[in-house]
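# step 3/5: fold
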Amino acid sequence: MASGRKAYLVGGGIGSLAAAAFLIRDGGLKGSDITVYEMLPILGGSLDGAGRASDGYSMRGGRMLTTDNYECTWGLFKTIPSLEHPGLTVFEETIAFNERVRSHSKARLIDRDCAILDVTSMGFSMNDRLELLSLSVASEERLGATRITDWLSPSFFETKFWYMWATTFAFQPWHSAVEFRRYLHRFIKEFSRIETLAGVKRTVYNQYDSLVRPLAAWLEERGVHFARDTLVTDLVLAPIGGKSAVSRILLRHGEAADAIDVRPEDLVFFQNGSMTDASSLGSMTSAPPHRTKHDSGGWALWEKLAAEHPGFGNPAAFNSSIAESCWISFTVTQGNTRFFDHMESFTGNVAGTGGLVTFKDSSWLMSVVLAHQPHFPDQPATSRVFWGYALHPDRIGDFVPKAMSACCGEDLLIELCGHLNIDMTVFETANCIPCRMPYITSMFMPRSKGERPFPVPETTRNLAFVSQFVEIPEDVVFTVEYSVRAAQMAVYQLLGIDAQIPPVSHYDRSARVNLSAAIKAFR
């Protein structure tokens, strides 16, 4: 089908890796004809997990998964072998794990008195219900570039539902009303179980080890070339047959510059934008440096291309306000089980079954999650690793007299102990690594039609975009599924593959699911 064609993928995140897999599996390309360029020394993009027990593990974040959605993601990983369980695919391995370790949170929200809140009721007033219904049935054309606050009253943002929904998906009140509406429809089944997170599925380990490593191994076995530490600085386009096509790729490896000639029949996939661009790590004694897009190359190429070519979107809609897209996460590594023992006793959840524990009255709106252990394949049996984050890093802490963005790891643990009313001795062997991410929710920023390019713009012949910053009707960003779906759409369209891409599951059209959501809204 695609004999002799070469494919070049700019960026080594899950979108590019998925595109490479679809090119081989469904498009007939040889792995040896596929090259992935990644500016970092490691693949995976935002799906990361690194470190060791002695120095502390670190994860910028972890994506929520479900088996009711994520149609393209599971369709891909049903064909990728597990690295640890011969004969099983990654999908089968993940399902088996979640059969053993089921999510059912018993302590979703904690108040200022360190009491577990009853969250069986969402806390809506009748006005809240009517406003939420009005937003959910409004067309995207009507919603336009409005914010969530344009549709919901201030009281809505004090409901238990908002605290749970916002921290589960990382929404801020000023984010896109369109994206919020899409989430209400896409995850309507989660609406009815948001207080228990029963629909959430976890990977066996962190998502780098559970998803990226097996996918990269499968690609490497088939001869895919990975050019790490390589920055693509430009894509040169030329007019061909009324459309534009990439004719050259300019790149830099260290101080050495190079250029790759691209034929019209070859394919280029570009991961435009980055939600973890300019992220930085701190330590137990230092806060993460404050970086911007000038400190990294994650946005520069998209900005250049968009300025020169209509239909390539508008990066400025997403990367112009760090204050509105930034938050801070932290990863804690301990050499003992003391904190885990306390949390399991306090919440009633064994690690891995509880999901997010959110401190509702925290100035930072801090949450922590204790994953099933081990969370890293090489993690010693005596160590424990957990992750946390907060949505308001610009605010002064309740127990630490400074903004979260100025805090070191020790400060974050002091704040956490304050909200749990426990002594810092529980963390005497802990190593807390904070991470600042200035663009982590940039894809949620209000946008207008056309500010995100389609996976394959109408004006291009051999160029596709695969990222969180493309336009896919009905699906939602900040998910692994969005990148994988964009990759599958791009590959199928460019290669003319006559096969159905798994459609978005429309649980929002189910009378039973809608009735369940309505009952929940009136509790």
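# step 4/5: annotate
The CA atoms of residues 340 and 425 lie 13 Å apart.
# step 5/5: archive (pending)
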